[in-house]
Amino acid sequence: MDPRQDRFEIAFFDVETTFPNPPGQRIAILEFGAILVCPKTLEVLQPYSTLVRPADPSLISSLPERSNGITPDAIASAPPFADIADTVFDILHGRIWAGHNILEFDCARIREAFAEIGQPAPEPKGTIDSLALLTQRFGRRAGDMKLASLATYFGLGQQTHRSLDDVRMNLEVLKYCATVLFLESGLPDIFTVNRWEMCSAASVSEGSSGYARFMEPDELYCSRLKIRYGISTRFVDQAGRPRLSFVVDASQSLCTVLDACEVVAKKLFEDSRSNSEWNPVVTRQSGNDPAARLRIPTVEFGDVDQYATEMYRKEPSGDIQKLEFVRFDVAKLDSLLKPGTFVDAFLSLDPYDYEQSAGIRLVAKKLIIHSE
Questions:
Q1: Lower CB density within 10 Å: C or N end of the chain?
Q2: Cα–Cα–Cα angle for 184, 186, 192, nearest 5°?
Q3: By the 8 A CB rule, do 129 and 99 touch?
Q4: Does 22 sit behind a cis peptide bond, omega within 30 degrees of 0 on the bond before it?
């Protein structure tokens, strides 16, 4: 590619990586795949993919066999990242970057890979994360909005978890979503969208405490939930960050809503013929009142991890002040979300089916923490 030409193309890319095991272990790129796409015609101008050999040999020897062809033998004979760095830089630098969940994962892996070989990382002209974009514009009508779920929704086949295949699938998913949204905007009275069938299943109240209702098709509002267990950091995500969550008492109102939602979600899950184990969204144990776990997602902005949940403190006077976190501070968060504290929560219901486990996650979009 001629570096002097106007870099107008969109660079769709994806990386396949090792999984941090144990948690906190460095993540290494195993495959890089990209296509350059003309934004006016969606013509694919230049595909590129390659396996990548990690610098740490132990990451190869401990690599599990994968059905998609990314095997220890294949990785052992692949070039190291230093050998492909110039090509990757030329594909990405100065172009718009696009991909599914790239803001949280792929962009960070690219920057880490360049830092490890002591070279400056490419910089984008702009970034399009299709996970965030489609969740906002398309709603959660395809469940957890992962690439595999979207592909299944549109009948595009199985995700292979190979970089170039996933990039091409991502582009096809965007085309299908754009078409549906275009049709709906042109004839809104005919194409009525019920993003969550479960939203109409229940909407009840229970006085001033434990009240639960849907604000929008994919947003559940719950007032004065009492925290039973504070912040848990037991699990980690693909980037090695703790998956933050806490447990609240589930009122009768909240249980009624979530149980109705679960009936619909579980029916869709059973229709998909998945072999995963279904985890109830409401925990009911003998001798204890019902409980539910709320998740606090994290996102990466540059080199800084931040909470994706908006958080506010409500004083006894009724004044509400937004809480600002300059860094990822689990200890501070734990001091705010202590057992016995009441919170108002705006939640999204996120169905998942991952690693033989399925269910509905309650993801906190906004929390109002009562100071009492």
A1: C
A2: 35
A3: yes
A4: yes
pLDDT confidence of residue 217: 46
Q: How far is CA 22 from CA 69, 82, 179, 234, in A?
A: 24, 26, 43, 13
Q: Identify the three-state secondary structure at position 17.
A: strand
- Tokens representing 240? 């090695």
Model confidence, pTM:
0.55
Please give, one letter per residue, the 3-state secondary structure of 218-264.
CEEEEEEEEEEEEEECCCECCCCCECEEEEEECCHHHHHHHHHHHHH
Burial of 234 (0-12, 13-18, 19+ CB in 10 A): exposed
**Exactly one of 93, 100, 161, 370 is catalytic; which is it?**
161
What distance, in Å, lies between the first and last C-alpha atoms of the chain?
62
Q: Is residue 294 a contact partner of residue 246, using CB atoms and an 8 Å limit? A: yes
Residue 342 confidence (pLDDT):
95
Residue numbers in the chain where pLDDT is lower than 50: 1-4, 190-208, 214-217
Distance of alpha carbon 34 from alpha carbon 41, whole angstroms: 18
Is residue 161 part of the annotated active site? The answer reads: yes
Which residues, other chains included, contact 235 with Cβ-Cβ below 8 Å and sequence gap of 6+? 242, 243
